[in-house]
Design a protein that fits this description.
single chain, 99 residues, mainly beta, 10 Kd Chaperonin, Protein Cpn10, Chain O, six-stranded antiparallel β-sheet, two-stranded antiparallel sheet
């Protein structure tokens, strides 16, 4: 399903991740990261990167499966086959974690 999506340019297609915490009593708590200024995503697809003046590409140094953190208001949200995804510009990624 998501393998059909292909990001273009210096963009990333990512799915939101809602990290959960479990209290001592076993109650699942939603992390502040899901409601705060930043949000965690899982990379689905990456574009070829930014085009340099000489016509070559500066590659994006992420791979599908990486987890990234981006400001919550950034990115364009869209639905594909019933699943929500975001198109995020590489400059909006503030942290990345390998799978």
């Amino acid at each position: 399903m998501a393998g059909k999506l292909k990001a273009l340019g210096n963009h990333i297609i990512a799915a939101p991740v809602i990290p959960r915490k479990v209290s001592g009593g076993g109650i699942h708590l939603v992390s502040e990261l899901a409601h705060g200024d930043y949000r965690e995503f899982r990379v689905i697809s990456i574009g070829p990167g930014r085009r340099k003046p000489d016509g070559s590409f500066e590659p994006i140094l992420l791979l599908p499966g990486f987890r990234i953190v981006s400001p919550n208001a950034n990115g364009i949200q869209f639905e594909y086959e019933g699943v929500m995804f975001y198109r995020i510009h590489m400059s909006e990624v503030v942290a990345a974690f390998p799978p």
